[in-house]
Known about the structure:
- This protein is of the alpha/beta class.
- The protein has a domain at 9-221: Amidase signature (AS) domain (Amidase signature (AS) enzymes).
- It has 15 helices and eleven strands.
- The chain has helices spanning 12-20, 26-44, 54-63, 102-109, 146-153, 170-176, 210-221, 251-266, 277-298, 300-305, 312-316, 318-323, 327-347, 377-382, 412-426, and strands at residues 47-50, 70-75, 112-118, 159-164, 179-182, 202-207, 237-241, 270-274, 353-357, 386-393, 400-407.
- An eleven-stranded mixed beta sheet has the order 1-3-2-4-6-5-10-11-9-7-8, with helices on both faces.
- Helix 4 (102-109) links the parallel strand 2 and strand 3.
- Helix 2 packs antiparallel against helix 3 (54-63), helix 7 (210-221) runs antiparallel to helix 15 (412-426) and helix 9 (277-298) packs across helix 13.
- The longest helix has 22 residues, at 277-298.
Amino acid sequence: MSASTHPYELSVTEALRLIGKRELSSRQWITSCLERIDHREPDVRAFVEINSRVLDEVDKRQGLGLGPSIPIGVKDIIDVRGLPTMMGTDFHDNRPAKRDAGSVAIMRDAGCVIVGKTVTTELGHRHPGPTRNPHAFDHTPGGSSSGSAAAVADLMVPLSLGTQTTGSVIRPAAYCGIVGYKPTYNDFDKSGILPNAPSMDTLGIMARTVPDTHFLRQTLLEEPSDVLKPKPLHDLCFGFLKGPLWLLAELETQGLIEDFVGALARKGGRITEIALEDETKQLLELQRVISSYEFRRSIADERINHEAQLSRVLREGRLADGNQVTNREYQMAIQELINIKLALAKKFYDIDILVMPSAKGTALTTLKETGDPIFNSAWTVSGNPAITLPLFNARSSQLPIGCQFVAGFANDMLLLETAETIMHEFAPTSER
């Protein structure tokens, strides 16, 4: 580590290497993260609760000879023993959770220490919390995993957990200029997490590098750690998604992605334009019907006993939509989703990776909205793995613009190997 580098700037893989060489201690690393939080949190407002015992936990692990401690933030709809789960509301009991969510228990066992709970939108929906985009404080960080994205982007922690039911990992990660990874549906344990729409709720990872993303994925799957091997571009066929959604992207976003796809081709990647028009329209409608129906059921206590304390955005948005969906319509949508998943899987016989925008453009100039998940929703309801990479910056504002990649169902390793290659070949030097 150079004299000018602060420990909080390190990726997980960099920090673990230095800890292994005894050039850095876990306590020094995490103390540096806490100092960064103290300095930046008043402006960014990424955390709802800081774990006051985190250094004691580090010291305990060291005393027991349990190996390095790894700092991580956890979205505040995920239970962490000893910390309250407020879910972006003012009325949930602020007593500490008695148990860890399954994912948190797994991470603790592997050496992760929970630095704090990150801000979420109201019940994981769209009504924003106080978090600001670290790149421009008058811009949204996205949602609902707003605090998790901002904390990683602002170097407060190297890793954080988010969740996605529409676009709540991919979009905030894109807005904040970091890596956001949504795995194949049901890859990660979801016990101890506020359900939103169980048919599509997915635990996701926020990180600054693809290798760190891979590290945490292996941790959550309880698989042995290994080195991520980049995938040669000439082995891949990329589907450039130019369907009905394409024209919804801002012109600058379109231009940047078109230029990127051209560069992919020049470096050996095979490119085919693909529309998926019918499939996309169907998936978007199914996502609306299924998520609104399941969300209404998931928050029955809140809507029955705390309706007056819910935001107008929530009451007049997804809850109102859910009121209009009958059980028969819901069950038919579930059946239709099975059929469209099978049809979509056949599309991946001919392509390896889909390429498309992560969001319409840069983060919105407002803190009252979290942005449109239109480029994410279809892949959430389909269950396909997706990742956003910080490949571009807007010319005028220099705000991040993400590029989204989607792989076939259960092809997460191919997605991550491809992402590592793309970051090595195309990302700005500071992002590699």
